[in-house]
Amino acid sequence: GPKGVINDWRKFKLESEDSDSVPPSKKEILRQLSSPQNRDDKDSKERFSRKMSIQEYELIHRDKEDENCLRKYRRQCMQDMHQKLSFGPRYGFVYELETGEQFLETIEKEQKITTIIVHIYEDGIKGCDALNNSFTCLAAEYPMVKFCKIKASNTGAGDRFSSDVLPTLLVYKGGELISNFISVSEQFAEEFFAGDVESFLNEYGLLPEREIHALDQTNMEEDIE
């Protein structure tokens, strides 16, 4: 609840203070505000139940260090929240599948909650290199998605993936094909990048929220202030 959040902040503030640089009066106030109440101590009840005076408030909040400490506290809270919400396996890079058997094993044995996006490509095909480069960026930004690539000639079904349908994107979840896009580079300009591929996949709801981006954006906004 709100009281728990306030106490967490006060404890965080006290622990982050440098004992050599904080005036004793300030440390004592912080310690009193963050320590649990002793029910058997009448003086403690009166001390903890009284309102913080204006002088105490100014003493705690007037320094620039307090503002920086509050920012660190907010950042830590966001990181803890995202860690709790971000469950399941994490990847962070592009997997090169070497054979059709490896391709099938990846689709069939991966956890059901995981979205798998496979790029079927060949060297020298227009758009394949740009899509592979885009996958490298997106895999880092969406670590909960498993990005893979495999050469059409290695799939064991090269006749189904001729050059005129490459690059092809196949999207799986729970062992089922949920989306497929042939000649996907035709959806983009002649020169395209990770942001273009990201927008395209988001149009079909194939990417989760970017929790890493949200944290970076918060950090950036705090640094500007």
Automatic annotation (TrEMBL):
Major localization listed first in the record, in broad terms: other
CDD domains per the UniProt record, alphabetical: Phd_like_Phd
What processes does the entry annotate via GO biological process terms? regulation of G protein-coupled receptor signaling pathway; visual perception
Q: Which residues cross the membrane?
A: none
Q: Where is the composition biased (Basic and acidic residues)?
A: 38-48
Residues annotated as region Disordered? 16-48
A matching Pfam family: Phosducin
Keywords, comma-separated and alphabetical: Cell projection, Cilium, Cytoplasm, Nucleus, Phosphoprotein, Sensory transduction, Vision
Q: Record keywords: S-adenosyl-L-methionine included? A: no
Q: Does the keyword Phosphoprotein apply?
A: yes
Compartments where located: Cell projection, Cilium, Photoreceptor outer segment; Cytoplasm, Cytosol; Nucleus; Photoreceptor inner segment
* Residue span, Phosducin domain: 1-221
Q: Name one GO cellular component term.
A: nucleus
Domain of life here?
Answer: Eukaryota
Q: Which InterPro entries match?
A: Phosducin, Phosducin-like_reg, Phosducin_N_dom_sf, Phosducin_thioredoxin-like_dom, Thioredoxin-like_sf
- What family name appears in the similarity comment? Belongs to the phosducin family.
Q: How does it assemble?
A: Interacts with CRX. Forms a complex with the beta and gamma subunits of the GTP-binding protein, transducin.
State the function annotated in the UniProt record. Inhibits the transcriptional activation activity of the cone-rod homeobox CRX. May participate in the regulation of visual phototransduction or in the integration of photoreceptor metabolism.
Q: What is this protein called?
A: Phosducin
Which taxonomic lineage is given here?
Eukaryota, Metazoa, Chordata, Craniata, Vertebrata
